[in-house]
Each structure stands twice: as C-alpha cells, then as structure tokens.
Amino acid sequence: MTDHDVRLAEAERLAGLLIGIVEQAKADFSETVTALGLSVPLARAIIGLTEPVPMRDLACELRCDRSYITSLADQLEERGLLTRVPGEDRRVKLLALTDAGRAVRDQVAAAVADRHILLRRLTDDERRVLTPLLERLHGDGTPPSAHTGGFC
Amino acid sequence: MTDHDVRLAEAERLAGLLIGIVEQAKADFSETVTALGLSVPLARAIIGLTEPVPMRDLACELRCDRSYITSLADQLEERGLLTRVPGEDRRVKLLALTDAGRAVRDQVAAAVADRHILLRRLTDDERRVLTPLLERLHGDGTPPSAHTGGFC
DNA sequence: TATTGTTATACTCTATAACTATA
DNA sequence: TATAGTTATAGAGTATAACAATA
C-alpha cells in the first residue's frame, strides 16, 4: 500500500463513521416521530413552524420546492394540525399551527431532544473539542447556493 | 431560556453541522459520479465490486434488498460494466466487473478521493483529534441489526 | 414582468410478495 | 424445507412545468 492509499483509507474510515452517526441520528428521529404518527417530512415541517411562516420560507428552510410544501401543508391541514392564513401581501399564505398542531410539536420536540445522540453520548468537554472541528469541516469555501440547493 | 433549552440548542447546532457535512460529502460524491455518467446507487455498487461478489453479499454491504441488487446489476450489465458469473453453488451468481467496469471503477475511486472533504479540509493532527470523538458517537450500545438494517 | 402558491405529472430509490431453480 | 436470484408491483419522497392570482 502506498502512502496515498493509506491516507485515503483513513479518510474513508472517518467518512464511514460520520455517515454512520448521521444515519443513526436520522433513524432515531424517524423512529421517534413515527411513534407519534408522523412521517419524517411532516415532522420536519411541524418543527419548522414555531411561528406562522410563508410557504416559500418553509421551502427555503427545508430546502425543497414550493410545490412540495403545498403537499405537506395539505396533509397537515387534513389532520387539523395547521391552517393557511392569508398574508398582507395577498399572494402569500402563512402556515400556522393550530392548538392541536402546537401540542404535537411540543411532543415531538421533547421526544427528539430526549433521544439526542449528541447529548446522550458526549460530555460537555467532548462537545467543546468537537465543535470547532466540525465547523472547519463544514466551513465556507463553498458558495451560498451550495447550502441552499437553489431553493432560497 | 432554561438550562435545558440551552443544552438542546447547542446539540441542535452540532447536529446541524454534522448533517451539513455529510450532505456536502454526499453532494460531492453525487456530482463526481454524475460527471462520470453514473447514478449514486450504481456508483456505490461499482465501488463495492473490487472483486467478484455474490449478489446477496453486495446487498448486505449496500444494506438493501436482494431484489434491488438485481435491478442495479441489470443496469450495469446493459452498459457492459459487469457480468454475472455462476458460482460453485449453482444458486449463486457472482457479480464481476468487466475490463470496462474496472476502468470506470478506477476513475470513480480516483475522482472521489480527490475531492474528499476530510482530506481537503483537515490536517493530520485534526483528524487524530476527531477520530476518537466520532468513535464514541458511533459507539456500540446498539445491537448489530441496527447496523445491517436486517439485510445481512 | 416577477413572484406566490397550486395542480398534474413523473422520476428515483427502494421495498414486498410471489415465483424459480437449486440445495 | 431453506436459500439465491428474479419479476412485477407499489410506495415514499420529491422535482418540473404550466398555470392563476397578485404585485
């Protein structure tokens, strides 16, 4: 094995860990919200609605097309978890959680926090070491569009 | 904000970084292999085929159903990148890259390594600090089935 | 003319169930 | 009876394009 191969193999191993961790976290999230009767995209939408938000803004936050937000909003409205309220600009509709929706969101937030892998598995000190490394990895040599996927 | 909220917010921020990093890495991978004319699942299959492998084993490695491997193998076979060769146990088929397939795999491997975020953005020292933290995060309080998704 | 949300449609990834050939 | 691969089908998630209303 050449030096180059060794470096690559090490990077692959780290990448595997990283991907494994994120997959674990996503699986946790999925299991948690499924137990509460929500799909993952529905739960992500609900969590994004701490206050009434134009559909376009939610699309930006979830990094998806506006048409997909329409479909998510339809489903949540059918379940009585949100309503569309007209904005000042009359093209805009704000998505606002109903009382039932807020109750569900509180449940989801509590359950998700409870199982949070980063709180369960690392000490405060370890998080303090980890944070700057992740910041460097995440770091910004990238154009903004790389973060928004062109949805904002 | 309560103490609890602060801890949760910090964890959410770390989780966001982690997810962002992995999404960036996946986007890099996707862009790289798309430029070489491959979809992500096809590229993952090719990379898994350093040597001839029973379809069931590839399913295990990629953590997907055997029926999906059939479909991936069909596509790669159509393009002349692999062939099915009968195993000793005559129920088994080995997937083996053709010469063209090996050429593509070498290209993919080189291109992926070249853009590897973990090699581009971190020093050796930083990787030495990062590794044990990721190991603890990934760590094994989890049953083996959580890693295989029931496909092995 | 540009933007918001909607509709209709279609694509990708992936699983399930039933099947066959073999063990 | 159990296992390897195949087929047909279906579902989740999500995008694109054309459109109506409003700015």
Approximate strand percentage of chain A: 5-15%
Spatial extent as radius of gyration of chain A: 19 Å
Number of strands of chain A: 3
- The helix fraction of chain A, in percent, is 55-70%
Low-confidence stretches of chain A: none
Could you state the oligomeric state of the chains shown?
A: homodimer
Order of helices and strands of chain A: HHEHHEEHHHH
Describe the main β-sheet of chain A briefly: 3 strands, antiparallel
Structural class of chain A: mainly alpha
- For the largest beta sheet of chain A, what order do the strands appear in spatially? 1-3-2
Mean pLDDT of chain A: 90
Put simply, the count of helices of chain A is 8
Question: Whole-Å distance between the termini of chain A?
Answer: 45 Å
Give the chain pair forming the largest contact, with residue counts: A-B, 37 and 37 residues
Shape of chain A: globular
Would you give an account of this structure?
2 copies of one chain form a homodimer. By secondary structure, chain A is mainly alpha-helical. Chain A has 8 helices and 3 strands. Chain A has helices spanning 3-35, 40-48, 55-62, 66-78, 99-114, 117-121, 124-138, 145-148, and strands at 53-54, 82-86, 93-97. In chain A, strands 1-3-2 form a 3-stranded antiparallel β-sheet. In chain A, a hairpin with a 6-residue loop joins strand 2 and strand 3. In chain A, helix 3 packs across helix 4 (66-78). The first copy, chain A, is globular. The model of chain A has no long low-confidence stretch (mean pLDDT 90). Chains A and B meet through helix 1, helix 6 and helix 7 of A and helix 1, helix 6 and helix 7 of B. Chain A binds a DNA duplex (23 and 23 nucleotides) through residues 39-41, 54-56, 64-71, 73, 84, 87, 89-93.
